[in-house]
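User: Hey, quick favor. My workstation is busy. Could you predict this chain's structure for me?
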Amino acid sequence: MVRREVSALSASKKKFKARVTELLEVGSSGRDEAIAELKRMGEDAIGPLLEALEDNDYKLRMVAARYLGDVAMEAAVPALVTALSDSSKNVQRCAADALTKIGQAAVEPLLDALIGKDQSARKWAAEALGDIGDRSVALELVKRLTDQNIEVQRAAVTALGELKNKRTIEPLVEVLDTDNVELAKAAAEALGKIRSSIAIEPLIRALSSPSVDVQRAAAESLKAVGPECVPPLLIELQSRDYIVRRWVVEILGEIGDDDARDGLINALSDENSRVVHYAAIALGKIGKPSAIRYLVELLDHPEKDVRCAVVEGLAHIGTYHAVEHLERMLGDEDWVTRLTAVKGLGNVGGRTCLTPLCQALLDEEWAVRKHAAEGLGKVGIRKGATEALIAAARDPKPSVRRSIACALGGLGGEEATAVLKKLASDPDDKVREAAEEALLSLEAEGVTQQA
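Assistant: No problem, here it is.
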């Protein structure tokens, strides 16, 4: 009797093992069904999955780790922690992801791995702990900031950012001041995620870092902190370092606080053209029409990059007050400036933009013509626009013809339909596709007239 029961049990285990092996080979399309079946198996699936986690084929080990995470099997935590030291980095990553999905039950074993001898395990343990989000482990992660392995340090820094524990700001600031660019960059990013006013001054100091990557990370974090940064940033507009001033005006523009307006207007007179460039864009992003009169004074600036930035600022403001100035810049010698002006006109929209956009269809630069066509489609005024688009429908550039087809499809009408039918036989496949889609759209709206 006992032998029969043991035999039946053994057969049952073999059956489950065979089925789990089949599920491990399921493609991505059947993954959801496989996960559901493994969950139904429950504990019976653990043994075969753990065996697969030790297979010689690293791809099979990866799949097994993923499934163990998907079904959140707490019994698999020790084996997954061991897999953080796997010979394959891909398996290590899958094991870390699985432990993150399992969550709280993995915290204590991960803390043990965090102080273990294996560098890979320490790194992935730090990352997983950050992703799990248990703030109580923050101080343990702080201890890893002095780890002998840089990768472990960086993982700990990133994890502390994910945990958003304000008690870790001071240690992160110390990392921010290190000479190691990767660590300093990670610390700047982490401080941005915590979003504390305590980090504002250190992040502002990092704007003068020798590393552009650290500067950029600090700038992005200051943007994330938000309006609290504005007063100290305005003070930094007087910095002797033009790089700091350049970042400050960009950050102020992204924050978009009205209190920055006067400071940005003053920055339009900065001795450094890069600062002027970013100040013009920033002032536009704040979006006050009252700033237009200050921007237009720079439309004749000798540097094309500054003129282009001013046009971008005017486009951001996006009111009819800016239209005459954007139209004027359609005659600029720099095609990028003309392109920026055309895009701005398209975004402003309205009848006042119709004539300048039609004129831009004749520009010598194809990118300007393309966006002029798109702008006319956005404006959506059939009279005047349709005639100009039809006249330009033989443009030598396929991308321009394609935009014309799209615009005509949006405007509709018998004349537009006739031209679209011709474009549906265009030698360029993308133009044909756009014309055909436009015709189908018009037919669906009941606009197309039967021949």
